[in-house]
Each structure stands twice: as structure tokens, then as C-alpha cells.
Amino acid sequence: MTRIDSSSLLQMRSAILQQNAALQKAAQKPAEQAPIAGPGAAGPQAPANFTKAFGDALSAVNELQAKAGAASEAYERGETTDIAAVMLQREQANLGFQATLQVRNKLLAAYKDIMSMPV
Where is this region: Disordered (predicted)? Predict the structure, then answer.
């Protein structure tokens, strides 16, 4: 079995942090380009950007989960013996899912707060 040393863990951590920074930068670009519309002005630009960004994020999480499932199945069939790579892919998929779940929870909490505001 392959041993995981601290340098490889630090490399994985830095790769995840770089991906996170890239995702945050990509998420901020549409917000900087399009001005925020007021409550009376419902422009087609703002919902499309949010919908596209949210859809892209969900498809990325789905892709991570599909890759993790395929890696697990390949390990179970004996096609690969690198359990560390399989576990890494499964953990990446789990992290993506947990992040998506937390975003959903925050969106639901914000929606409930807005709906409970007096008019």
C-alpha cells in the first residue's frame, strides 16, 4: 500500500485551495460585469448568470461524483490497486457535495429571512 507523506498532503491542499480561488474568481466576474437590478427592474441578465453559475457548479459536483463512482467500481473489479487515488476522488466528491449542500442551506435560510420580512 502506498504511504501518504506530508508533502503530498500539502500539494493536494494547495491544489484544492487553487481550485477554490479560481471558482471564487469565476463566480465574481459575472457579478462585476452586470449591475445589480433594483426590485422593480427584473432584467433577464441577472437570473441567467445565477442560473448558469449554479447549473455549472451542480454539473461539476455531479462529474466529481461520477468519477469517484467509476474509480470505486474499478477498484472493486480489481482494475486498479491504488486505494489512495480512489479515496482521494471519493473525498473530493464528498467535499463538493457538502459545499453544495451548505450553499443550498444558506440560500434557503436567506429565502426564509426575506419571506419573513414585513412589507
Answer: 27-48
| Cβ neighbour number for residue 56 with a 10 Å cutoff | 13
Greatest alpha-carbon pair distance for the chain in Å reads 63
HSE at residue 16, side-chain half, CA atoms within 13 A, is: 14
Query: How many Å from the N-terminal Cα to the C-terminal Cα in the chain?
Result: 63
Q: Enter the pTM of the model.
A: 0.55
List the one residue out of 5, 31, 20 whose CA is nearest residue 92.
20
Q: Kindly report, residue by residue over 59-97, the tens digit of the pLDDT.
A: 999 999 999 999 999 999 999 888 999 999 999 999 999
φ and ψ of 40, to 5 deg: -85, -20
Cα–Cα distance measured from residue 17 to residue 111, given in angstroms and rounded to the nearest whole number: 29
